[in-house]
TrEMBL record:
It comes from the Bacteria. This is 6,7-dimethyl-8-ribityllumazine synthase. Keywords: Riboflavin biosynthesis, Transferase. CDD domains: Lumazine_synthase-I. InterPro entries: LS, LS/RS, LS/RS_sf. GO terms for molecular function: 6,7-dimethyl-8-ribityllumazine synthase activity. Pfam families: DMRL_synthase. It is an enzyme of class 2 (transferase). (2S)-2-hydroxy-3-oxobutyl phosphate binds at Q94, T95, R136. Catalyzes the formation of 6,7-dimethyl-8-ribityllumazine by condensation of 5-amino-6-(D-ribitylamino)uracil with 3,4-dihydroxy-2-butanone 4-phosphate. This is the penultimate step in the biosynthesis of riboflavin.
Amino acid sequence: MATENKNLSEYDKTTIPNAKDFRFGIVVSEWNDTITEGLYNGAFEALTDCDVPAQQIIRWNVPGSFELIYGAKKMLQTQNVDAVIVIGCVIQGQTKHFDFVCEGVTQGIKDLNVQTDIPVIFCVLTDNNIQQSIDRSGGVHGNKGTEAAIAAIKMAYIRQQASIAHTFNQPLLSSGALQIEDSPRKIENE
Ligand SMILES: Nc1c(NC[C@H](O)[C@H](O)[C@H](O)CO)[nH]c(=O)[nH]c1=O
Ligand SMILES: CC(=O)[C@@H](O)COP(=O)(O)O
């Protein structure tokens, strides 16, 4: 399904875990800042709508989308957060630079998700033109910042529940609910 068939701002609060105790880092690229500010506002408003206190949302700015990688890495290393959202807008220019920036950021953020324990949510528009960016940052297709905020809450919850499940050696059910048995299973290979 392409974005044009899905409004990025739609979410069902009944399907979203309790986020009031989570802390979120948001790293925002200053390139195409009219777009990235719109994405940030979508993310911030969705987080607060899901009961995340504003004081639990940390924002850092970086020059461009390529710097989102380092900014997110330092956020993870120095801040007590449950998830990080990186926000950028890369728009095709006259050269191949677009390709390298998009690929570099994609791979860099993927690497952070593999190498660290904190989920990093990819809220980077990679558009052919400014109109596509406008449409996806609060325009006709909704706001990708909103989508990213909801993803951040859900991934922070999975991280939290998976940690508890591991501690008690209990299964984490597909619903995301823990199945804590009366007496925790004997830990294998004790
Ligand atoms: N053209 C865009 C860029 N380019 C800048 C790079 O992201 C980076 O800051 C520079 O290469 C220095 O390392 N960045 C965007 O976010 N969006 C663009 O459209
Ligand atoms: C993504 C970019 O770096 C690009 O917008 C820069 O424009 P150009 O390719 O014309 O130098």
